[in-house]
Amino acid sequence: MIKIVDAADFSTQRDVETGTEAQRATVLKILKAVKTEGDAAVIRFTEQFDRIKLDTMKVTEEEFVQAVRQIRPEVREAVREAATNIRDYHSRQMRQSWLTTKESGTMLGQLIRPLARVGLYVPGGTAAYPSSVLMNAIPAQVAGVEEIAMVTPPGKDGKINPGVLVTAYELGVKEVYKVGGAQAIAALTYGTETIKPVDKIVGPGNIYVALAKREVFGLVDIDMVAGPSEIVVLADETANPAYVAADLLSQAEHDTMASAVLVTACPQLAEAVRQEVERQLAELPRREIAEASIRDYGAICVVESLEQGLEVVNRLAPEHLELMVKDPMAYIGKVRNAGAIFLGAYSSEPVGDYFAGPNHVLPTNGTARFSSPLNVDDFLKKSSIIAYSREDLLANGRKIVALARQEGLEAHARAIQMRLDNEGE
Ligand SMILES: NC(=O)c1ccc[n+]([C@@H]2O[C@H](COP(=O)([O-])OP(=O)(O)OC[C@H]3O[C@@H](n4cnc5c(N)ncnc54)[C@H](O)[C@@H]3O)[C@@H](O)[C@H]2O)c1
Ligand SMILES: N[C@H](CO)Cc1c[nH]c[nH+]1
Ligand SMILES: [Zn+2]
After folding, report:
1. Alpha-carbon span 33 to 39, nearest angstrom
2. For binding Zn(2+), which residues are annotated in this chain's numbering (predicted)?
3. Ligand 1 centre and the CA of 127: distance in Å?
């Protein structure tokens, strides 16, 4: 049963990222072994944790072809159309290098370059989402990343989820390895005989993957450590309770630790949604997962006004926020913290998960206060350009010398002073 909570002390923060001491020790052991032993360690851990003896790590052309045969044509068509929408949306995020020239002749600018090689982690198990392949690979491709290596654990039959493989194939991602867990993160970071190291690792995974990503950050870049899914629906009396309940359950079915919350000032809507959640839950194939999520992390927060509701929303900083109110556009300027904002009755959250175009890799657990959806910038890096003119150096050199000496850095000061002495009139 979904609980009714008080606005004042309500929080959706969950302790999901630190793991136990034993898990952290396991991850450190795996990272060290792969770093020193390479492929042999990857093969050993895959046998230990996935119960698969790998003959070859790299997916063959024949395996791609087999996967294509297993996927219905309409699904493949939907993947293509979703890919087009996601590519169009992310293309708008692309930045250009720039250069300004001052009257003094000095040129200053910023050079934009894509990362050269990126690793994409795709989880195995029941959460092997082809849509996550689209959401992680397309922004990298739009940025111009030349090499994308995908890693994903083998299933019980030693094969990779066919939907995931076909989606990779559709995008032209052909470098795919049947390796998962911390050993995959280690291989992407340090490199092995088979897997070349990457510059950045993106994509969600279980606690072993999350801990390994945190540990290697600095040697490589990482995107974020995404926690369980979340949705907050801010609704008024005009909202359809069945739609609200369905959208809450769409995220609850992801994970027993997913969080689904209704915030409303309308007690009648709160009661109707409560009943709808119970009714719809009973019919869901993933009922056990959704039920646990609703029981432990679901809530209805009855507030005094929509204004107060917005305060709650901004405090929770949810991954997904739905504004199911009469005039959603009127409220958008008041939303401070949310990963993605869905406006009106027809912008149901799964529209964003699969098809509309924005990314579904979003900040969770309150991190929308300071971070953004996965985007093209995550795959770009910037270099500053400084082409100082003689005129500017002579005009400003003394100030630079003063700043250097203030820091006690005489060699810095002399590098400038030497030019002033040589060139000064
Ligand atoms: N936020 C998102 O967008 C999003 C999307 C998809 C999945 N997810 C999350 O990703 C996770 C997927 O988890 P999963 O387990 O199904 O797949 P996974 O690929 O993340 O992890 C499987 C790997 O974990 C390793 N492993 C398992 N048990 C181990 C142990 N005892 N010691 C060391 N390593 C071990 C194995 O090597 C295995 O290959 C879920 O938590 C899910 O919620 C999040
Ligand atoms: N809602 C998830 C992120 O919170 C992403 C996803 C993948 N497939 C379906 N949904
Ligand atoms: Zn989802």
Report:
1. 10
2. 251, 254, 353, 412
3. 8
Q: Are strands 320-324 and 340-343 parallel, antiparallel or unpaired?
A: parallel
Q: Judge whether 119 and 176 are in contact, CB under 8 Å.
A: no
Closest CA to 119 of 145, 99, 97, 95: 145
Which burial class, exposed, middle or buried, applies to 62 when counting CB atoms under 10 A from its CB (0-12, 13-18, 19+)? exposed
Mutation choice for ligand 2 from 354, 360, 362, 364, CB with most ligand atoms inside 8 A: 360
Identify whether the C-beta of residue 219 lies closer than 8 Å to the C-beta of residue 189: yes
**In angstroms, rounded to a whole number, what is the distance separating the alpha carbons of residues 185 and 225?**
13
Q: Which amino acid is at 173?
A: V
Element (H, E) at 328: none
Cβ atoms of 154 and 160 within 8 Å: the answer is: yes
Distance separating alpha carbons of residues 290 and 278, to the nearest angstrom: 11
* Ligand 1 pocket member 125 (CB < 6 A): yes
- Of 391, 393, 385, the C-alpha closest to 417 is 393
Q: Nearest Cα to 262, choosing from 230, 224, 290, 296?
A: 230
ipTM attached to this prediction:
0.96
Six token digits for residue 148 = 């994308």
- Residue 425, pLDDT above cutoff 80: no
Given a contact cutoff of 8 angstroms between Cβ atoms, the answer to whether 116 and 132 are in contact is no
Q: Are 120 and 149 contacting, i.e. CB atoms less than 8 angstroms apart?
A: yes
Q: Is 183 annotated for ligand binding?
A: yes
Q: What is the pLDDT of residues 17-38, one digit of tens each?
A: 678 999 999 999 999 999 999 9
Domains of the chain, each with CATH number or no CATH: 3-14+227-356 (3.40.50.1980), 21-222 (3.40.50.1980), 390-423 (no CATH)
Helix (H) or strand (E) holding 176: strand 175-177
